[in-house]
Predict the structure.
Amino acid sequence: MSELPFASTLSTLARLVPAKLLKPRVGIVCGSGLSTLASSLRDVVEVPYNQLEGFGKSTVVGHKSSLAFGLIGPGEGIPVVVMLGRFHPYEGHPLSTVVYPIRVLARLGVKNLIITNASGALNPNLAVGTIVVIQDHLAIPNLTGHLNPVFGPQLSPDYPRFLPLSDAYSVKLRRLAFLAANKLGLAEDALAEGVYAWVSGPTYETPAEGRFLRSAGADVVGMSTVPEVVAAREEGMEVMVLSLVTNAVVIPESYRSIKAEIKAELAGKPIEQAPVQTVSHDEVLAVGKQKAEVMKNLVANIIENVSSD
Ligand SMILES: O=P(O)(O)O[C@H]1O[C@H](CO)[C@@H](O)[C@H]1O
């Protein structure tokens, strides 16, 4: 891992980004369809990922491929950096590339990281459009096909070999999320809390997988975020995840029985069947677009209240 090109990436950024923006206090990762989060920044400087050594290219629709630096909030403003587009393992990126931007943000001085994503609801109480403040995660290697971004030689001897994750999700930032929702007058059920399950994708869950994840205690499921959280924790950042529910994962109570249908048909009493519901990325992006303004205001309000540390 020592071959990671931090020196090159940081010197390119130092050349392209004005000094007043180069020490961001807060980092933001934009999930699918959520790149408009950067529209509340001013004095924005965008650096395309293809100019930054070590960065991959986001190939997923709804993800741009650049790092935006800018100011947010009143007065002089708070310098922030926004990842407009993330890397997913299913695009073919190794986990070290998936988390490389997070490690760069840490080296720029980011101490507080707000990660956003789109997710499917496993918990039937979570309606589409709900923003879930993540409390914990489930990363099951068999389901993700990946291990862990901190697997292998340690990046630094200063990092713990056995990173604890019982406190991965910052209480300080989660409190700010609920205070922001209150300040913005959001409805009680606009913001919820829950557990995120990480799967590899890019296939959406089968009903059996959905049922398994739900029974394992997950409330929402997605194909990103967990590697970023783990790397950010290793780098010593405070992390919060806002997960926008874009669809419900279909978990039928029972399977359609073709055996029973044929039997009924042969007996002259055919059984009516509702069509199977499926999810699409277009649906995911559409909900992101509908909720872009609320997410943007929430994130801006949280950032304005992050104390300087
Ligand atoms: O997690 P983000 O990047 O928001 O994207 C989510 O949306 C895509 C599926 O529609 C997957 O990549 C899933 O992880």
